[in-house]
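Quick start: read one record
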Amino acid sequence: MDRIHQQVILDTGPLVALINRREPRHEWVKHQLMRIQSPLFTCEAVISETVFLLQHVHNGIQTLKGLLETKSIYIGFQFNSEVEQVTDLLVRYDSVPMDFADACLVRMAELLPDSAVLTLDSDFLIYRKHKNQTIDTIAPWQ
């Protein structure tokens, strides 16, 4: 199994699939995480979406809490420092449309140049960092 040596930015879909065994991509995400060195980087918007999606999953919030407390998932993004860049992305991709969490993740990809986004969201094929650079992804379509 090939190890992934770059920093990995975590999107909502894989995080929910990891915690909720009933998600169709649960096993795929588990397999990917065996290849990735911790921590996974994310933002508060992803955590917010995840909490909402796990509200009816038995022990879902407790599992998320454990991942955050052990720093397996690290929130390494400060929106207050990136307001202009994130809102510019939201305007640029208004026709997709881009949600707030995705805008934060694209900005994180800009800030972490040797990174890949672990995602289930094909919109990351459309998004560009620094206006014209593709974003490396770890996704089921690869």
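DSSP finds six helices and five strands in the chain.
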